[in-house]
Write a structure and sequence with these properties.
The complex is a heterodimer of chains A (537) and B (361).
Chain A: E1 2-8, H1 15-26, E2 31-38, H2 41-49, H3 55-59, E3 70-76, H4 79-94, H5 113-119, E4 125-128, H6 132-144, E5 148-151, H7 158-170, E6 175-176, E7 182-185, E8 188-191, E9 198-205, H8 208-220, E10 225-230, H9 243-254, E11 260-266, H10 270-281, E12 287-292, E13 306-309, H11 312-322, H12 334-348, E14 356-361, H13 364-378, E15 382-383, E16 403-406, H14 410-413, H15 424-435, E17 439-447, H16 456-473, E18 480-485, H17 494-503, E19 507-509, H18 512-524, H19 527-531
Parallel strand pairs in A: 4-5, 5-6, 9-10, 9-11, 11-12, 12-13, 14-16, 14-17, 15-16, 17-18, 18-19
Antiparallel strand pairs in A: 1-3, 2-3, 7-8
Helix pairs in contact in A: 1-4, 6-7, 8-11, 12-18, 13-18, 15-16, 16-17
Chain B: E1 3-6, E2 9-10, H1 15-19, E3 23-31, E4 34-39, E5 42-48, E6 57-60, H2 62-71, E7 77-81, E8 84-87, E9 92-95, H3 115-132, H4 142-147, H5 155-172, H6 176-186, H7 196-210, H8 260-268, H9 274-283, H10 290-298, H11 304-315, H12 321-335, H13 354-358
Parallel strand pairs in B: 1-9, 5-6
Antiparallel strand pairs in B: 2-6, 3-4, 3-7, 4-5, 7-8, 8-9
The chains are: A alpha/beta (537), B alpha+beta (361).
Chain lengths: 537, 361
């Protein structure tokens, strides 16, 4: 092993930047360990303890480093790897959070909407990600300049949201958000999005990971997406009244490349959903509405041109059928049949104490869908986003019986990266769930695509392997089921991620519904599979 | 033409710095939402609106901070005094608003402190912190220190755990030399712009200072802090008397003339960054960040949910600074008499097994 170091005098970076850069560097090939600390005496001792102290490097310095200097040290298998990693660290620190240079001549960064429009007057959409308290102002300015808006920022009040959406609708513009994480516009992914072929299915969604799940299931069936329009999670609430979902619906109806429209939301306000469906009934294109948490019969009678679905998988299958594809190619519950023997085998090897599903989700809508399905199969599911108030986890509880955690909520992500980007928080919970003797099965979602972690399997697979080995050594099995949401075109490559996770012993399903059923069947016995709703449809 | 702006608000300790004759300083460091400025070895910070206030901060509208972040670099010359901050390079000056300053010393005497209530809240916070703590700071040491649980054996933990135990022991025994040694070992230790050890010391001495009668008046030098005012408590107001101690014993007095919190801050100062040393000096006088003060003010209340929400806000600060600070607060409460089932020997409780320790969370 060799250690290479870099000293930056009187240089300061915030903790989050330093830690994310070092985490990135540690993932580089041949890097064994790395650290970036203020060069205090205590930290030099700490580096020595961690076998990261660059003694030779320090000996050559004319002036020894002090508390105001930043010291970066990297230990790698050879000098070239260490130097390369050091270069990566320096580049990342020079432009934290920015992508590597593409090599083309770069445009100077625009620091205001006006500057951005001066760079390119043909732009017709603004992507806004500023502190919530100012976001509405930026959004309003953009709308008044005739721009569609993708509003990534959260902490915009309901009143401001309604005002902005009313303004947007009056101008025939989209206000996607606030807190909108996902969209695909004219083939360009915004925020957390997957690489899917262009096609004839358009989506309007009030849930980010719900749209991603639909996109990936449709892509797996060989079809593509015309547009995916996010609305922000509150759009179908009473207060917002579905303003942007209706606007999106109208746009897709006019869009010549869209032949089938999918609407997706969790728990819409009933009368808002009914009004939306009435509007959809006047549409000349087939419409599939995926309303999680609402049974289709709640909306009867519905025009025959509209199909209602209560899961993403059902919605994808319906959309694929309408679009002229083969719904059997959607990787839905049929995939469970192939796993039936494995599930039976793993169920049989559970210790008597192993009775509960422990679901650790990064995607809020996927978590919600899993809870709906699990609760139908196993009863109460405790959670930080509970289906019923009495199922809420108390502050001191990490798990209670069957438990599903949405680790992407503010309580887990305040000041920290989302678990789809940085798996740290979920790794912690994963380890704890594995050590709990009552855990029968761990259910995870892993969402691929832009903005997500670049190689989640490289982080999760070794841990899953180790936890399963440790459980086996302790005389019990530890089934891990992964709901893997991604496409072959994603930067992480679906097949590569699947292979790595399966090699570690995880059961991998692309349908979140199927993954939830698989988890339920493990605690109920494999009879649970054949009882799964829609499995043999 | 000079553009003149008014800050949205400011912390009381920076007022004298603006009131004095103009002095030249420089931009120390700059982030999207924070701009640190040093004048005569005194550091204060301009923050973006919406960011939790610090004991030495003034806040500006976010759009202004974005402009400053875009245009300024460390080392740029500034001038502070005669009622304003001037940045000649930008032809810009910032005045403090003509309204009451924000007070960073929480008035904990305003509430009745019942020992049993605080113990209960501290226990809830400790368990919450144990669940949420990451491996890369010191917060996870709440497990062996306060909950008799094992934790990760990291290089940082190996160094810090005995020092924190020494700090607690020496504080209880009024062992000034021991306290200074522990503080010097922890200062500047760990990751982050304010290293983890400093954040923990900050929480610790903040509590010690607030629960101590000795926290206020002393011989503050202008270069340590900018809040000293005349013949009051060093903070421009009457020293707090009758700080509630119901059920909580006061921090032990030391054999030194200086209060324990001050001894720790003084010992730490040469061992760490200017930014950390500044915040420690403020904490030694009970001046803490807004989110920390909110948590301390929530402790006398009955509602655990309120306390947990406030603890969450502290936890959310920085990468691991929040958790490290929370650990310091809990240790400070213990030093002030909260009775935890602590393992002092370190023999029965400490690290997880080697196999667990190998895994980097």
């Amino acid at each position: 092993m060799v250690i290479q170091a870099l000293l930056k005098r009187n240089t300061y970076y915030d903790s989050i930047t330093l830690m994310s850069v070092i985490q990135f560097v540690k993932e580089q090939a041949a890097v064994d360990d790395a650290g970036a600390v203020m060069a205090t005496g205590a930290n030099l001792a700490l580096m020595e303890q961690a076998e990261l102290l660059p003694a030779a490097f320090l000996a050559e310095l004319e002036k020894q480093p002090g508390p105001e200097d930043l010291l970066i040290a990297i230990r790698a298998s050879d000098e070239a790897a260490a130097r390369a990693a050091l270069l990566v660290a320096e580049q990342k620190l020079a432009a934290p959070g920015k992508k590597e240079s593409s090599g083309s001549a770069s445009t100077p960064a625009a620091r205001s909407l006006e500057m951005a429009l001066r760079h390119d007057a043909s732009a017709n959409m603004a992507l806004i990600s500023v502190a919530g308290e100012h976001a509405w102002l930026e959004a309003e300015q953009a709308l008044r300049k005739g721009l569609h808006v993708f509003l990534f920022s959260n902490n915009v009040s309901v009143e401001q949201e309604r005002r902005l959406k009313t303004l947007a609708a009056s101008k025939g513009l989209l206000l996607m958000g606030p807190d909108c994480g996902t969209a695909i516009i004219n083939g360009v992914g915004l925020g957390f999005s997957n690489v899917a072929p262009r096609g004839n299915i358009g989506i309007v969604g009030a849930s980010g990971t719900g749209m991603q799940q639909l996109t990936c299931l449709i892509a797996a069936a060989g079809l593509g997406i015309s547009q995916a329009i996010g609305t922000g999670g509150r759009d179908l609430s009473e207060a917002i009244d579905g303003i942007m979902m209706r606007e999106g619906l109208a746009l897709l109806e006019r869009d010549p490349s869209t032949e089938v429209i999918v609407l997706v939301s969790k728990l819409p306000a009933k009368h808002v959903a009914q009004a939306l469906l009435a509007e959809a009934a006047r549409c000349e294109k087939p419409v599939v509405a995926v309303f999680l948490g609402k049974a289709p019969e709640e909306f009867e009678p519905v025009d025959s041109i509209i199909k209602l679905a209560s899961t993403h998988t059902d919605g994808a299958e319906l959309a694929v059928s309408f679009a002229g594809g083969d719904h059997k190619r959607v990787p839905g519950n049929g995939a469970l049949l192939a796993l039936e023997s494995k599930l039976a085998e793993q169920h049989a090897s559970l210790a008597p104490s192993q009775r509960y599903v422990r679901a650790l989700y990064s995607g809020g809508t996927l978590c919600y869908e899993a809870m709906l399905l699990l609760s139908e199969q196993v009863g109460e599911v405790a959670s930080n986003i509970p289906l019923r108030p009495e199922w809420e986890l108390a502050a001191h509880e990490q798990y209670r019986g069957h438990t599903a955690l949405d680790l992407g909520t503010d309580e887990f992500t305040r000041g920290k990266p989302h678990p789809m980007i940085d798996p740290t928080i979920r790794l912690h919970y994963l380890e704890q769930a594995a050590q709990d003797s009552e855990t029968a099965v761990i259910l995870l979602d892993i969402v691929l695509g832009f903005c997500s972690h670049l190689n989640p399997a490289s982080v999760y697979a070794p841990l899953i392997q180790r936890l399963r080995d440790e459980a086996q050594a302790a005389g019990r099995s530890l089934p891990v089921i992964v709901s893997l949401c991604g496409t072959e075109g994603d930067p992480q490559r679906l097949s590569a991620q699947r292979a790595a996770l399966e090699a570690a012993g995880a059961l991998v399903l692309e349908s979140n519904e199927a993954a939830a059923f698989a988890a339920a069947s493990l605690v109920r016995g494999t009879n649970g599979i054949s009882q799964s709703r829609g499995l043999y449809d | 033409m000079t553009l003149t702006l008014e800050a949205l608000d400011y912390s009381r300790p920076i007022r004298p710095l603006f009131a004095q004759a103009a002095r030249t300083g420089f931009v120390h460091s700059i982030f999207p939402k924070a701009l640190n400025i040093v004048v005569d070895e005194t550091l204060f910070v301009l923050l973006s609106a919406g960011v939790s206030r610090m004991p030495n901060s003034a806040r500006l509208p976010a759009c202004i901070m974005e402009q400053l972040y875009a245009k300024l670099r460390p080392g740029v010359e500034v001038c502070v005094g005669n009622g304003k901050l001037s940045i000649p390079m930008l032809d810009l000056s910032v005045h403090l608003p003509d309204k009451a300053a924000w007070e960073p010393v929480p008035v904990i005497a305003a509430h009745s402190w019942h020992g049993a209530t605080v113990v209960r809240h501290a226990d809830v916070i400790a368990r919450h912190l144990a669940q949420r703590a990451r491996e890369d700071g010191l917060a996870h040491l709440v497990k062996p220190l306060l909950l008799q649980q094992a934790t990760w054996e990291t290089p940082l933990a190996k160094i810090a755990l005995p020092l924190l135990r020494s700090l607690l022991r020496a504080s209880r025994e009024q062992d000034v030399v021991g306290v200074e040694q522990a503080a010097r070992g922890l200062a500047g230790l760990g990751p982050g712009l304010t290293p983890s050890g400093d954040d923990t010391l900050g929480g610790f001495i903040g509590v010690m200072a607030l629960l101590s009668f000795q926290a206020g008046p002393d011989d503050i030098k202008s270069k340590d802090l900018v809040g000293r005012q005349g013949a009051t408590d060093g903070w421009g107001r009457t020293p707090t008397r009758g700080v509630p101690t119901c059920g909580i014993t006061r921090p032990p007095s030391t054999k030194s003339d200086r209060p324990l919190a001050r001894i720790i801050a003084d010992a730490a100062r040469p061992c760490t960054t200017l930014l950390s040393a500044t915040l420690l000096a403020h904490a030694a006088r009970g001046a803490v960040a807004e989110h920390v003060g909110e948590l301390l003010m929530a402790l006398p209340g009955e509602e655990s949910a309120t306390v947990l929400r406030a603890a969450e806000r502290v936890l959310a600060y920085g990468a691991c600074s929040g958790g490290d600070t929370l650990l310091g607060l809990l240790l400070g409460l213990q030093a002030a008499g909260i009775d935890y089932p602590t393992d002092d020997t370190g023999e029965n409780y400490g690290y997880t097994s080697a196999a667990q320790a190998e895994y980097v969370l």
